[in-house]
Amino acid sequence: MDNDGELLAVDEQLQEDRPEQQSEAETVSKAQRIVLELNGDNTKRVIDGNEFVMVLGYAPWCARSAELMPRFAEAATALKEIGSSVLMAKIDGDRYSKIASELEIKGFPTLLLFVNGTSLTYNGGSSAEDIVIGCKRRLNFEGSENNEFVKAAKSDDEIQFVETSDSNVAKLLFPDLKTNNVFIGLVKTEAERYTVYDGSYKMEKILEFLGSNKFPLITKLTETNTVWVYSSPVKLQVMLFSKADDFLKLAQPLEDIARKYKSKLMFIYVDITNENLAMPFLTLFGIEAGNKTVVAAFDYNLNSKYLLESDPSLNSIEEFCSGLAHGTVSRYYRSEPVPDNENASIVTVVGKTFDELVLNSRKNVLLEVHTPWCMNCKALSKQVEKLAKHFKGFDNLVFARIDASANEHTKLQADDEYPMILLDKSGQKAKPLKLSTKLSAKDMAVFINEELKPKDGSAKDEL
């Protein structure tokens, strides 16, 4: 028997000979044998040779994989009993890591749905019932392959697609229907109940329309929908943190703002009294638990965040959203107050002044990056102070330091090791030079002098 035969590995004769009552373990074992085990030899042939293939990427050591396996097997059994043509398969992504990478399995467990050899995003649930429903939705549309609506239906396992040629039925679903020609519309149980699609009759455009419009005007974040929210194609997301009563006062005008920027911004409401949901976001802005309304935004494409720092009135929120949509709002960096650096031999840099004093400065900047809990930072600080005194006459060199625990910037990464010494040379700020902190003050002076040696060739490396 070849590997494909494992799909029908349930021995019907053996089943007849067994007693009617089976243990739960035997039932699970039988169900799991219905699922085809993929390997390095059969994966491509199976996926390319079947119209519908659902693949479970798992790892033997993964607890969540162990939880999903029996549900997946149960779904496979249910689909087999109704005569579904979906082939259910699994692959040990840890053992066959190269194949898993080619299938774009990036974590465990992962569910993938292949239609005619093409991998499609699976956004359905992970219970046996959800998996069955997701697969059945694919098979409900067996129309012409040239039907772009049908192809879109096969490519989306989250939205229920309905097709009708009866105008009366169409008007029951979409009361504002004003045409007898081909029409596509989205119906939701939200404030924005009916949305008309006016794009080209192409699968890609239809799916793009659904991705941008399937969410409510304002989505309430819950413990169960975080993955769904993150799957939105709109990656610039405005988040309103407030108590439920305060949100109700803002909901209607906020929906108007959300409607205005629907294709550019996604609006999310988070109950600020739910600390498990709210605090992971608020702490990124240095905000402690409280009941005061906060408006912030995250751009997951640029890996940046923004904060409305004025009082969140309707006017300020709309202005904030307009600035986000047009790219005029400055990124937010956690920052200490701006210090007075007048007459300082070593300039103190904070999050708000990093661009001005380091990146946009026309001078060379030697930046010491430290934290209060760093064991070796104090010793290095003394060396930097000695260097600053030594190079005092160099007009093109500025000595600076920043506390990385209290200040943020994209140039300071969370996994950086401290202390750290960076030489940001004028005209080359995108590629700062990293000095070894094991160097003596004298060796650092030699290094700095070699990099910034004046045109007259004079050196100043004697400490």
Automatic annotation (TrEMBL):
Compartment(s): Endoplasmic reticulum lumen
Chief site of localization: endoplasmic reticulum
An example Gene Ontology CC term for this record: endoplasmic reticulum lumen
Pfam hit, one: Thioredoxin_6
CDD domains: PDI_a_family (cd02961), PDI_a_PDI_a'_C (cd02995), PDI_b'_family (cd02982), PDI_b_family (cd02981)
Family membership noted in the UniProt record: Belongs to the protein disulfide isomerase family.
Name of this protein: protein disulfide-isomerase
Organism: Arabidopsis thaliana (Mouse-ear cress)
